[in-house]
Amino acid sequence: xxxxxxxxxxxxxxxxxxxxxxxxxxxxxxxxxxxxxxxxxxxxxxxxxxxxxxxxxxxxxxxxxxxxxxxxxxxxxxxxxxxxxxxxxxxxxxxxxxxxxxxxxxxxxxxxxxxxxxxxxxxxxxxxxxxxxxxxxxxxxxxxxxxxxxxxxxxxxxxxxxxxxxxxxxxxxxxxxxxxxxxxxxxxxxxxxxxxxxxxxxxxxxxxxxxxxxxxxxxxxxxxxxxx
Length: 228
Fold this sequence. Notes:
Layout: E1 2-14, E2 17-30, E3 33-38, H1 45-52, E4 60-65, E5 68-69, H2 75-85, E6 86-89, H3 101-111, H4 120-129, H5 145-156, E7 163-167, H6 175-192, E8 195-199, E9 211-216, E10 219-222
Parallel strand pairs: 3-8, 3-9, 6-7, 7-8
Antiparallel strand pairs: 1-2, 1-4, 4-5, 9-10
Helix pairs in contact: 3-4, 3-5, 4-5, 5-6
Protein name: ABC transporter ATP-binding protein
Pfam families: ABC_tran
GO molecular function, one term: ATP binding
């Protein structure tokens, strides 16, 4: 399982011309590793994540997920690929207020056409993996910010993805809770052999990742070494 972007170029309309968001970007993230993506606002980080998630089709280049080249796939096939192979962790958990922690995860199984009831053991396993075994019946308003973000992570892993894409998961957390969430992501990446991409502004995270790249003006280069 791995994620590969090869010579990816993405442009957007800008008046009478085109604005280049990604310029011949290549990125290889092996299974069981986490790559941090750094860069200032507007550098292309969000575009890179959207292309990696197959939410946006690049002008040129290829995106390969778990050995599957997504070039030329129909919208329906891309949707199925995202459902089966890609987990996404957003800045805000966006949990459904009426659902318990366990039900948040079981809803993902429903989207995959599986019975939520049959998915209950998987949900229980993942809640235990993120340290929330005792919170399965609690709703979002009964949980702390760090606990909600842990549910967000567990939900992204519900369909056992090959690729995990994480967008600023600690931006709304204090330093202690943010460090705990990052430790959790690192552990789960290695244990579940996902190819994980972490978009972050926080350089204190770099010691926990396996590789670092920096995006500037749509181009990817080597970032600070891990452990810096």
